[in-house]
Automatic annotation (TrEMBL):
Heme 3 binds at C138, C141, H142. GO terms for molecular function: electron transfer activity; heme binding; metal ion binding. It is found in: Cell membrane. The keyword Iron applies. SUPFAM superfamilies: Multiheme cytochromes. This is Cytochrome c-type protein.
Length: 201
């Protein structure tokens, strides 16, 4: 007498449920992308960037520059200079920037005095990032290739020509264009202390 093992076939999911699942995944994807885009756009505004009271000093300095007000009426905001346009670097910048909120809450830079004490260290980190990216954000508006050197002052013309020949980038010469350039700390002790403390930049 032979015993045959009966194998049960798995139940098939009705086609309409498969289609429904695909539609739901698609809608969830749209919702995620839409929410992420809204968050990125909202956190790129000048109002958001200056909403922390420790940013008011930077904001006041910015208002005194040509990036804020100029004859052409073209304004460069915080995001134009500090947030990359490409989605990958932009997302990384947004994630890393969350530490600024953390340090505001933790009290590392929550007063003008604390902010000024850390200012050179924070600025130096921003300059390093700009140098590493070949002043990528600056070049969305300014580029050697698009400059009419004949329209520039003699000093600017010679400096820009020399910088291009040497392979220098914007931030090599233009520190302190929008925010006051902080003085470098005196002595190695200060520098070592700055490196040892929590980095809010």
């Amino acid at each position: 007498m032979e015993f045959r093992e009966t194998v049960k076939e798995p139940k098939r999911v009705p086609r309409r449920f498969s289609l429904l699942a695909l539609v739901l995944v698609f809608l969830a994807g749209i919702a995620f992308v839409g929410t992420a885009n809204y968050a990125i756009t909202a956190t790129n505004t000048l109002e958001f960037c200056t909403s922390c009271h420790t940013m008011q000093t930077n904001y006041q300095e910015y208002q005194e520059t040509l990036h804020f007000k100029n004859p052409s009426g073209v304004q460069a905001t915080c995001a134009d200079c500090h947030v990359p346009k490409e989605i990958g670097p932009k997302l990384i910048t947004k994630i890393v920037a969350a530490k600024d909120v953390y340090h505001e809450i933790m009290g590392t830079i929550d007063t003008p005095e604390k902010f000024e004490a850390r200012r050179w260290h924070m600025a130096n980190n921003v300059w390093k990032k700009m140098k590493a990216s070949d002043s990528r954000e600056c070049r969305t508006c300014h580029d050697f290739a698009n400059m009419d050197l004949s329209e520039q002052s003699r000093s600017a013309r010679s400096r820009h020509a020399a910088a291009e020949d040497k392979g220098e980038t914007c931030i090599d010469c233009h520190k302190g264009v929008v925010h006051h350039e902080p003085d470098e700390p005196d002595g190695s002790d200060h520098a070592e202390t700055a490196q040892a403390t929590v980095d809010p930049s």
